[in-house]
Design goal:
The complex is a heterodimer of chains A (325) and B (308).
Chain A lengths: L1 E3 H15 L3 E5 L15 H5 L4 E3 L4 H13 L3 E5 L10 H8 L2 H4 L9 E6 L14 H5 L5 E3 L4 H13 L4 E6 L6 E3 L13 E4 L4 E5 L2 H15 L4 E5 L2 E3 L3 H11 L2 E4 L8 H13 L8 E3 L10 H7 L3 H11 L4
Parallel strand pairs in A: 2-3, 2-4, 4-5, 5-7, 6-7, 10-11, 10-13, 13-14
Antiparallel strand pairs in A: 1-8, 6-12, 9-11
Helix pairs in contact in A: 1-7, 3-4, 8-12, 9-10
Chain B lengths: L1 H15 L14 H9 L6 E4 L4 H6 L4 H8 L23 E4 L7 H14 L5 E6 L6 H13 L3 E7 L2 E2 L2 E2 L12 H4 L4 E6 L3 H18 L3 E6 L19 H8 L3 H11 L5 H24 L15
Parallel strand pairs in B: 1-2, 1-3, 3-4, 4-8, 7-8
Antiparallel strand pairs in B: 5-6
Helix pairs in contact in B: 1-11, 2-8, 4-11, 5-6
Classes of the chains: A alpha/beta (325), B alpha/beta (308).
């Protein structure tokens, strides 16, 4: 069946809440308002206010509270209205959620999902348009997921909810209305498994979340000039499925990484380093990164467009690694 | 109380000998708060603490051997040597941990209370924190959520007068009555002499009863005093308080107050105290021997328990 990314998440969360009474949704405007982006449409009606919990605008407080609830055996799903606001909860996420299992020598665990949209939408300005996945990926104890398609969103959020660890689940505002084929009923996609989204032989394109769409668009254009790009979506950013990425890199010998985040200490730098260590001898040249611009996000539409990677930039990067410039 | 006092004294010695490392905050002077408060709980209630957590852990009944082994960084420690002085956890006793970011554990305590309410149980979550945490955003966000949702948390503020070296008067706007900070959220609040173990137990007993029956949080300010420095790194007096002030506070040593009262009321004789002193000395001696004889954690354990 077909569904939007938003509907896929809505279905998956509903199915998990029906399956397990320990699962509850908590966040700003998730109940009566039905979610700032309507992911929790119909939840209050079906599950009631015990399990669909509106909070005051206090990310530190309700994220910390959810961590505590997880420590006591519940399985909270925290909706952050956007990941920009999760910055207010960073101490709770990094110092508590990620470390409590380790610090306690395995006595306590935090089965928790923190989900909401990351990255830029349209003209939301600097404080509402940023890709912070590298921050979370840096922290041992956290898992980080960033699905690009409705099918992946549904299967991965279910695995995230069933995982015993804290999972940061990064969606994207511009992906919510995107349609795609999703499987029927109760399927899961394991965390930590990448997927080849388009097979190819000439160059490996690695991209996740919204940037997967950019990479696929570029791959389509490249095909017209006879370049077969293999597009891979890691889907889970930590733990990273390096084996799948490396297999493709060995095959093509050329790698381009596309990410919306800032270039300095960005996630692509880590992926490149990991690949160099594993497949350096198979590469025909340096790995190239296409990243967001190293600036706070500007408001003006033309400037904003210039700050976010697009298919033309990806094509140019592919030409570069193929020495066709 | 005597066990905590002697345990902490030995901890200081072991620290000086280099057996214990890192930051280490002793509870000497504040024993009556932990002992009185925890005594009012049921075994299935939960306890949270901050970084000065040895006393709370012992009061909850944790094995002094495993506690000392944790301080020594040994594999037999409560947290297998992964936590250390500031992060003691004993899940079997619902001792949910020591946390070392000031104010950062208050939302966790509210979260456990949320889970209690979610399940329809009548457990109570006792959350210790210092007055230094009171001005933090974490504290105020938590007080608001706990009041808003009627969460069964007892916020127990150990007001020992100093957040490291900064006196409460220079840190908390409502310093004269710290509990006013909770009252502002509609949380019932009281103040108790934190040097009087029986008064603390009575106050916490009442608060816990209120929480269980009325499904509301409660806030108790226990006025206490730390006899030593903030951590092993600073002296008992000097930069921020005088020796005279510390000496004055020691006149109300919680152990001395209880002993005097028990003798006066003939509830105990000198011989009883002597016997208890001997018993405690042995427990502490055995704890140190156990810790010292325990192996360090194997390096192969380094990566364990990062993920489930």
């Amino acid at each position: 069946m077909k569904a939007t990314y938003r509907e896929a998440l809505n279905q998956a969360l509903k199915e998990e809440m029906r399956r397990d009474d320990r699962v509850f949704l908590i966040g700003e405007d998730v109940a009566y308002y039905q979610g700032a982006f309507k992911v929790s449409k119909g939840f209050l009606e079906e599950f009631g206010s015990r399990r669909v919990v509106d909070t005051p605008i206090t990310e530190l407080g309700f994220t910390g509270l959810a961590i505590g609830a997880a420590m006591a055996g519940l399985r909270p799903v925290v909706e952050v209205m956007t990941f920009n606001f999760a910055i207010l909860a960073m101490d709770q996420i990094v110092n508590n959620a990620a470390k409590i299992r380790y610090m306690s020598g395995g006595q306590l665990s935090v089965p928790l999902v923190i989900r909401g949209p990351g990255s830029a939408a349209h003209q939301l300005g600097a404080q509402h348009s940023q890709s912070l996945e590298a921050w979370f990926c840096h922290v041992p104890g956290l898992k980080v997921v960033a699905p690009a398609t409705p099918h992946d969103a549904k299967g991965l959020i279910k695995s995230a909810i069933r995982d015993e660890n804290p999972v940061v689940f990064i969606e994207a505002q511009l992906l919510y209305p995107m349609q795609g084929e999703i499987g029927d009923g109760d399927y899961t996609i394991p965390l930590g498994v990448a997927e080849v989204k388009r097979p190819g032989t000439d160059v490996t394109l690695i991209a996740y979340s919204k940037m997967l769409l950019v990479a696929l668009e570029a791959a389509g254009k490249l095909a017209q000039e006879g370049i077969q790009a293999e597009v891979i979506d890691p889907r889970t950013l930590r733990p990273l499925d390096l084996a799948t990425l490396a297999t493709s890199a060995k095959k093509t010998g050329k790698v381009v990484i596309v990410e919306e985040g800032w270039p300095f200490a960005g996630l692509g730098a880590q992926i490149a380093e990991s690949l160099y260590r594993r497949v350096f001898d198979y590469l025909d040249g340096p790995i190239v990164r296409v990243t967001g611009r190293d600036v706070p996000m500007p408001y003006a539409r033309n400037l904003e467009d210039a700050a976010i990677p697009n298919a033309d930039q990806v094509e140019a990067a592919v030409h570069h690694v193929l020495y066709r410039t | 109380m005597l066990l905590i006092r002697r345990f902490e004294e030995r901890t200081a010695e072991m620290y000086a000998l280099g057996k214990i490392g890192g930051f280490c905050h002793l509870y000497i002077g504040e024993e009556a708060v932990a002992v009185g408060a925890v005594d009012a709980l049921r075994p299935d209630d939960y306890v949270f603490s901050a970084y000065r957590d040895h006393g709370h852990c012992l009061a909850r009944g944790s094995d002094p051997k495993r506690l000392m082994a944790e301080l020594f960084g040994r594999s037999t420690g409560l947290c297998k040597g992964k936590g250390g002085s500031m992060h003691l956890v004993d899940a079997e006793r619902q001792f949910m941990g020591g946390y070392a970011i000031v104010g950062g554990h208050l939302p966790l305590a509210a979260g456990v209370a949320f889970a209690v309410r979610y399940r329809g149980s009548d457990q109570v979550v006792l959350c210790f924190f210092g007055e230094g945490a009171v001005p933090s955003g974490a504290c105020h966000e938590t007080l608001n959520l706990a009041a808003l949702w009627g969460l069964p948390v007892l916020f127990l503020c150990e007001n020992n007068r100093y957040g490291m070296g900064t006196p409460v008067e220079r840190a908390v706007a409502l310093y004269a009555d710290v509990a006013q900070n909770a009252a502002a959220y509609g949380i019932e609040a009281g103040r108790v002499d934190g040097m009087d173990v029986l008064a603390v137990r009575d106050a916490v007993d009442k608060a816990v009863e209120q929480i269980r029956t009325r499904h509301r949080p409660y806030f108790v300010e226990a006025v206490t005093y730390r006899f030593l420095g903030h951590s092993m790194a600073d002296p008992a007096h000097g930069h921020y308080r005088t020796k005279a002030e510390v000496d004055e506070a020691k006149k109300r040593d919680p152990l001395l107050l209880l002993r005097t009262r028990m003798l006066a009321e003939r509830q105990a004789a000198e011989a009883d105290f002597k016997r208890i002193e001997q018993e405690v000395a042995q427990i502490v001696r055995e704890a140190v021997e156990f810790a010292d004889a325990s192996p360090v954690p194997p390096v192969t354990a380094l990566d364990d328990d990062v993920y489930a």
